[in-house]
Design goal:
It is a single chain. The protein has 266 residues and is mainly beta. It is 2% helix and 65% strand. Strands 1, 2, 5, 6, 7, 8, 9, 10, 11, 12, 13, 14 and 17 form a 13-stranded mixed β-sheet that branches. A two-stranded antiparallel sheet has the order 3-4. A hairpin with a 3-residue loop joins strand 9 and strand 10.
């Protein structure tokens, strides 16, 4: 009823398991169709620095199809997905980059009338040889309009560690993990909106990616006690401009984290 008349949410999923070469293959499929109005604060926003009233926003529609393949014997999981988005709503901001910082900033909510297609292919592949474990997640993404919906073409996460026990009671994991994604124009953070927004100004756009973030860690478990120590971003380089996950917001340099979790029973 009212302004939300015509909204529609349809979701579907199914799964099938079968035997293959002495193990189980799992096939799953899911899909959804969502049609919805933009939120009230997207169409009407009033603040000290930003103010807009948009009366002609259309319903956004998202159509999603996804297939999953899992084979336990080889620790393989493959996911393929296709998305079709019409009337995508998004925040965008523009500013001039000067020696004094960002000036003449404007931001707002916009809607893209044409269709945007997104193709996703993701592979989870784990290996194990005795105490050596290697976990990998590789994701490929392709957006038909990177100006409106920017995505890194390739994302890679890899975790290599040794897992063993000392004196048959102390569980230990020693290893390192790395995260890397290809270069793209990541959404910027807009403090005035507390939202991430597309970089509109071609003269001040910042490209991120092509840089690995590496952590080293040690996890230990003794009965009900768990404790860990980790150095995050161990490969930090002073002055490297690629050490960012969002434009102008650098990731911390190397930091040591440690903690203890102790469960008590009465």
């Amino acid at each position: 009823a009212g302004e939300n008349a015509g909204e529609l949410f349809i979701d579907f999923d199914t799964a099938l398991s079968s035997a293959l070469f002495g193990d189980t293959v799992q096939l799953a499929a899911s899909a959804y169709f969502h049609r919805f109005n933009p939120a009230v604060f997207q169409s009407n926003y009033h603040s000290k620095h930003l103010w807009w009233d948009i009366e002609d926003l259309k319903m956004e529609t998202r159509t999603h199809f996804e297939g999953n393949f899992s084979y336990e014997k080889t620790n393989t999981h493959l996911r393929l997905a296709v998305d079709e988005i019409q009337n995508l709503g998004y925040y965008a901001m523009s500013y001039d980059a000067t020696t004094a910082g960002r000036t003449n900033m404007t931001a707002g909510f916009y809607q893209h009338g044409s269709n945007i297609s997104v193709l996703t292919a993701q592979l989870h592949q784990n290996f194990r040889l005795g105490p050596l474990n290697w976990e990998n997640v590789i994701t490929y993404q392709n957006s038909s309009n990177t100006d409106i919906l920017p995505l890194p073409t390739l994302n890679i996460f890899s975790n290599l560690y040794l897992k063993f026990k000392i004196a048959k009671v102390l569980g230990v994991e020693l290893g390192a993990d790395a995260t890397w994604f290809s270069k793209y124009y990541a959404p910027d953070y807009c403090p005035a909106l507390s939202q991430f927004a597309i970089q509109q100004n071609a003269d001040s756009r910042v490209e991120l990616g092509g840089y690995p973030f590496i952590d080293v860690y040690a996890n230990m478990v003794l009965k009900k006690v768990r404790f860990f120590v980790m150095m995050s971003h161990v490969n930090a380089e002073s002055g490297n401009r690629m050490q960012f996950l969002a434009p102008h917001y650098p990731v911390n340099n190397s930091v040591i984290h440690f903690g203890v979790s102790w469960v008590f029973y009465n």
